[in-house]
Amino acid sequence: MKKALTTTALVLLAGLGLSPAAQAEVRIGASVSATGPAAFLGDPEAKTLEMLVEELNAAGGINGEEIKLVLYDDGGDPNKARTFATRLVEDDEVVAIIGGTTTGTSMSILSVTEDAEIPFISLAGAIDIIDPVKPFTFKTPHTDRMACQKIFEDMKKQGYTKVGMISGTDGFGASMQAQCKSVVGDYGIEIVADETYDPKDADMTAQLTKIKGAEGVQAVLNPGFGQGPSIVTRNYKQLAIDLPLYQSHGVASDGFIELAGADAAEGVRLPGTALLVAGLLADDDAQKPVVTTYKTAYEGKFKAPVSTFGGYAHDAFLILTDSLKRAGSAEPAAIRDAIESTSGLAGTTGSYTFSPEDHLGLDLSAFRMLEIKDGKWALVE
């Protein structure tokens, strides 16, 4: 809990007994789940932040000042996240915080940053993080409500009117389940089966068997993230359920295909980001230069596929550094005001336009409807 992960430069300076304060710098903080049950999300986030800080400093920093990143690993524990957020504000004296890999850790962090009036950019999906709007809290992923809308939009196009739902009981799954129920009627769709599973469950065949037997069910939606959706997908194949399966943006990564198995995942649809289909983007797509640059840099440095979740961290860093450049000051209130004036900033997740009334900055057009074909991501036309 006391271990802080910092940029290589900061570690070397400390090892030499030198004070980094001797050089003009801007200190930013982060708390992500680099280990623990959400490590598949937090690990690429941590790596992305460290890589981007290194790149930015090599290019001269921001307005002549070097960026110092103080990065903690909360292991997905909301209590640790709250402790680290307090440490970042009070001891490390950062001007802004990026992180909150999960909804739970994000809610803990924002409880600290709002009191301290420090900008916080969350990397989690729940709508509750930014709705209602909180003065100093922003986020980069689409909301779970938007994911529901994108999925139901596609289901409506396919003519589905009766669907089954199997949701995780974790914070993400429960939130998305509630959001889907709140908007499903707008699309003329009825939920005819509604099952849940614990994130620690190793088999969901009982719930899926009930859904399979529900009268008139035409498709199935699984709000969830982590290993649960992969198990659902494998069980789905084992039960030979001949119905379309939709997953959430919470599993939009190559890791999901690997865990579920390409055969079982074949045909699964979900809303995702441009990052997963970088090579399929049109040359005039505003996101293509950003997506391809990040993908090339990350995969070249870490010899691993880029992920949507690392992309969330990329966009948070982009938003923060762009705002620092425009703010003309490293004062938290000035940074917050600059974030709120961001307009048309292309990231890996979408193009962000914030305002005092909108701390997400994305609309449904930022989502791409994707389908798994032959073990790879494909755009749904």
From TrEMBL:
Signal peptide residues are 1-24
Q: Which UniProt keywords apply?
A: Amino-acid transport, Receptor, Signal, Transport
Q: Where is the Leucine-binding protein domain?
A: 25-361
Carries keyword Signal? Answer: yes
Q: Which GO terms describe its biological process?
A: amino acid transport
- Decide whether keyword Signal is in the record: yes
Q: Give the family this protein belongs to, as stated in its UniProt record.
A: Belongs to the leucine-binding protein family.
Q: What is this protein called?
A: Extracellular ligand-binding receptor
